[in-house]
Each structure stands twice: as C-alpha cells, then as structure tokens.
C-alpha cells in the first residue's frame, strides 16, 4: 500500500532518539519517492509517499522476481558541521544507473529525474540525516521490471523509486579471503552494471567467508583466476612498496564512484602515482605495503590480511597503513565541505 506523503503536522526538526551505534541496516523514515513507466505514457511524474508501512504490490509474474530485471544505486546525504545537507557526486550515480539500465534493457530515468528524486528524499527526511560524527543518510535508488511477463523479454512496466535511511559503518572488517573456484563476473557479462543479480551471486561466498572469520571475499577474474576484481560490494586498492596506488582496471567490475574519487584524490591532492591496470593477487601478496577497499557504503576500509589457499598473508606490517588513512580523511573532509572540492562533487540540497 502506498499513501502520498503530505506532512500536515510540523515534524519535529530532530528525528526520534538516535541509536548511538548506527549500523548499516534498513529502517523506515518519513518519505520515499516513486514513479512508474508504462509503454503508453513513459515515466509518470514522480512523487513522495509515506515510507512507514509502505509496501509495493507486484504481480507474481513481475520480471524482477524471477528474471532479476533490476538495477540499483547507492549514494549518501551528509550533514555538514554547518548543518547543511549535501550529496556526493549524485550526477555520477544517475549516469551509472542509466548505464546499468541499458545493460539490462530497462528504460532509464533521466539524470534530472534521478536528481529530483534523491534531492526530494534527502529534503523530506532531513531530520533523519545524522550529525557527521554519528553517520550518514544512505539513499538507495532502485529500478525494476515490475510488469508481468512469462517469456524472457523486458518487462512491460517498470518502477523507479528511491528510499533512504540513516546508517553507520558498513562491514568494518579488515580480513579478506580468496575462495577458489568462485567468481563474481565473467568477461562481457553484467559485472560492470549495478545489477541486483551480481549481489545475489555473492551471498553464499560471503557467508562462507564470514563463517571462516573473514569479512568478505576478494574475487579474482573468471578468465585466468589470477587478477583481482573486487569484493562483494566494494572496489579494491593496493599501495605498492614503490608508493604507486593501484586499483584493478574497469571491465567486469563496478565502476565505483568512490573508486574514481580515491584515484583523483591520490593524484590531484597528494600528487601520488595512481593507476588502473590488471593487478594480480600474486603481486599484491608480494609487493603491497597497504591495501584497502572502497565504496559508498564502505567509505575506505583497510585490508590487513588476505587468505589464499588456506594461508593468511599479512599486507605490509599487518596493520592499517598511513597513506590509506590520508586518503580516507581527505575523502571524508571533501564530502563534509571541510576541504576544497576542486571537482564540483558536493551538491548542497538543504
Ligand atoms: C554501496 O556501497 O553503496 C553499495 O551499493 C554496496 C552495497 C553492497 C552496500
């Protein structure tokens, strides 16, 4: 059931008491945004609905339910210390959603519609955007084939919606494992799209990793089982003993917006050499002095151990490294308008 969001009462400016230990977990807030696409009308004008108690009604034959015709995005709204609410690189999320949609034959919302939706959700839920030291407000734009279909074909109807909730740290662990014979994506497959099914395929390997005491799987390429790709939901970086920052080249991995930001910060803020190229596991285990993973949810988290074939390999001295910490701090300061944003990444919405 969907009820239009019409805040009749003045909402208290502060949301109900914060859980002091915000986790990366779903919760319902005040409003979410939704629009529908039909072949007759295209995208309808979108609008806000009540988030609390909201459910979507779908046909049992909705394409997303069994053909997995769904793509999504993740971006964050931050409250700055001045009290403004800002988004980080939302145009890039809009463009990536359009690229993912094209790969899965979904009609893509325009960049303007995407920006209208994420801005509306951030503003309507302003009282849920945590203070900077507490966390951030995660926005999840979702595009699905909602129409009923039986044969393998694009759905006849689509939904695009954006919900959000306050979040804290994602994962937080620093030990990764390479699992033999498990790959995330094949060459020319859907690995570069933010397709729902890419994440479904990671669930069992991730469960195994956690049972073994590792926070996530570090996937290798499907062609040679040699080159690092990424984690289940984050991109990987290594800093080699000569100071070069290296991240796997694009192809079958997600073109992460945080990944691109870290490359840019490494080059343009610190003047380091930062390259995208094939990066073998062997090279990381022998030459890396620091490693870390990045993503909107993960921000930047150090990797201190990689397990391969039953052996734990420490990265560098087995502790988080100073340059990873410098990159993380610069990224967070730019996101919170505490360091010059030389690239126009930060967009004020309230
Ligand atoms: C993000 O970092 O925003 C993602 O979408 C990754 C997801 C696994 C939480």
Describe this structure in words.
The chain has 350 residues and is α+β, with helices and mostly antiparallel strands. It folds into two domains: 31-167, Aminotransferase class 4, branched-chain amino acid transferase, N-terminal domain (D-amino Acid Aminotransferase, Chain A, domain 1, 2-Layer Sandwich), CATH 3.30.470; 175-335, D-amino Acid Aminotransferase, Chain A, domain 2. It contains seven helices and 18 strands. The protein has helices at residues 63-67, 90-103, 111-124, 196-211, 257-268, 281-287, 322-335, and strands at 31-38, 42-43, 47-50, 70-72, 75-79, 85-88, 136-145, 157-167, 175-178, 216-217, 235-240, 245-247, 274-276, 288-295, 299-303, 305-308, 311-314, 346-348. Strands 1, 2, 3, 4, 5, 6, 7, 8 and 18 form a nine-stranded antiparallel sheet that branches. The chain has a five-stranded mixed sheet with strand order 13-12-11-14-15. α2 crosses α3 and α5 crosses α7. The chain is globular. The two termini are 29 Å apart. The structure holds 2-OXO-4-methylpentanoic acid. 2-OXO-4-methylpentanoic acid is lined by residues 74, 233, 295-298.
């Amino acid at each position: 059931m969907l009820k239009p969001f019409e805040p009749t009462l003045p909402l208290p400016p502060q949301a109900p008491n914060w859980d002091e230990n915000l986790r990366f977990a779903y919760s319902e807030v005040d409003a979410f945004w939704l629009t529908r696409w039909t072949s007759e009308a295209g995208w309808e004008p979108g609008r806000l609905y009540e988030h609390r108690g909201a459910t979507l009604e779908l046909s049992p034959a909705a394409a997303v339910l069994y053909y997995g015709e769904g793509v999504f995005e993740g971006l964050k709204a931050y409250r700055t210390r001045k009290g403004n609410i800002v988004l980080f690189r939302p145009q890039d999320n809009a463009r990536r959603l359009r690229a993912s949609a094209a790969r899965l034959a979904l009609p893509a919302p325009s960049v303007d519609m995407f920006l209208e939706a994420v801005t509306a959700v951030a503003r309507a839920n302003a009282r849920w955007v945590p203070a900077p030291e507490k966390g951030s407000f995660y926005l999840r734009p979702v595009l699905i084939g909602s129409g009923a279909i039986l044969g393998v074909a694009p759905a006849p109807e689509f939904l695009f919606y954006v919900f959000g909730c306050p979040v804290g740290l994602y994962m937080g662990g620093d030990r990764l494992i390479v699992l033999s014979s498990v790959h995330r994506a094949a060459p020319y497959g859907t690995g570069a799209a933010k397709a729902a099914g890419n994440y479904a395929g990671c669930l069992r390997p991730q469960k195994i990793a956690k049972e073994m005491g590792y926070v996530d799987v570090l996937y290798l390429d499907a062609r040679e089982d040699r080159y690092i790709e990424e984690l289940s939901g984050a991109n990987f970086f290594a800093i080699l003993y000569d100071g070069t920052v290296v991240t796997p080249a694009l192809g079958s991995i997600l073109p992460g917006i945080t990944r691109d930001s870290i490359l840019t910060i490494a080059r343009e803020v610190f003047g380091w050499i930062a390259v995208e190229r094939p990066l073998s596991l062997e090279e990381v285990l022998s030459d890396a002095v620091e490693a870390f993973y990045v993503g909107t949810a993960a921000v930047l988290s150090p990797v201190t151990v990689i397990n391969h074939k039953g052996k734990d390999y420490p990265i560098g001295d087995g502790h988080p490294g100073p340059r990873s910490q410098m990159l993380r701090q610069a990224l967070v300061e730019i996101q919170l308008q505490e360091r010059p944003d030389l690239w126009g990444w930060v967009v004020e919405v309230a």
